[in-house]
Write a structure and sequence with these properties.
Length: 390
Amino acid sequence: MPLSLCQRLARSVEVVTPDLIEVRRELHAFPELSWHEERTTDLVATWMDKNGIAYERFEGTGLMAEIGPDGGPIVALRADLDGLPVGDSSQDPWKSTVPGVSHSCGHDVHVAALLGASVALAEAHADHLLPVRVRLIFQPAEEVMPGGALKLLSAGVLRGVSRIFALHCDPSLDVGHVGLREGPITGASDHIHVQLSGRGGHTSRPHLTEDLTFALGSLLIQLPAVLSRRFDPRAGVSMVWGQIHAGNAANVIPSTGELSGTLRMLEASAWHQAEHLVRGLISDIIQPFGVTAEVTYTRGVPPVVNDFAATETMRRAVTEAIGPHGVATTAQSLGGEDFAWYVASVPGAMGRLGTRTPDGPTYDLHQGNLRVDERAIAIGATILACAAVV
């Protein structure tokens, strides 16, 4: 019985899997922060040169390659390149060699998987079996706001593209499974930084100051609380502070202090209202204290909204690559992901790639102890390649 095209792609990925694992380990050992992925881009370019795949480097970092026949629609596949400012606390031989930086979101797996897909697709094209042209997007700076997706979109990365696919590591899902969901799969995410200024003084005379520390504490508690009453609860709004700083002595009321955090929500409609509402509430909360606020509100990303037809395409790809047992349902999360900008322009879908070893520990993203079952690399490569052709 002749092999299907997806089966052929899987065979091609299987051959290069040892190389993909080595590439992933090298990427993991030498992570680079957003907009500084020079070594990572060089590694991708070397892979393309080795496999005879034409590509174009973006200004700065990042790369785009194309495989397949000219003319007709283009299917895009995307991986992200950057690491995070999080120290690697694992004990693997390939742990990060860069202090305070790691691939604790699994982008090294994403890159290796797309490299595997590139080889499989190139071999299919050489055999005149590839029915569409496939664009491979290796994007910088997913982990910052605004992310690299916007830069690539302005450079025309989706020109001629009819649909786009991506995978994201999910350490709560066993390897061999891919989580799929139609509609929103991630949340909107913004950054908020508030710098307060006021007349400081001695803690024995708070009435002669503007007691900035007390104002800061009020803002810390009240903004999340009031937001929960100003948004529709169904919007799933979550305001969480991650940084707070004021003062250097117990008996001194400082004249400056700051808060930083993220505002996340499930619905795009709420996201469009958020900045105006937040700025107004901050002004109202601090008004009784007489302090002033400088608010830096950085709009991040809307939710990733998976297209119905594209999600079904990915479902067929998972079924052919792994089997029907490989398809898992997944809930919408509040995590932000700038793949949202791509699917706001063309139909597409993101799936969650299981990376947990069955019966093994469950890790979390953005933590320095993240470990992945490396069998996920070949699975991801095969699913991405299949999604382009099924």
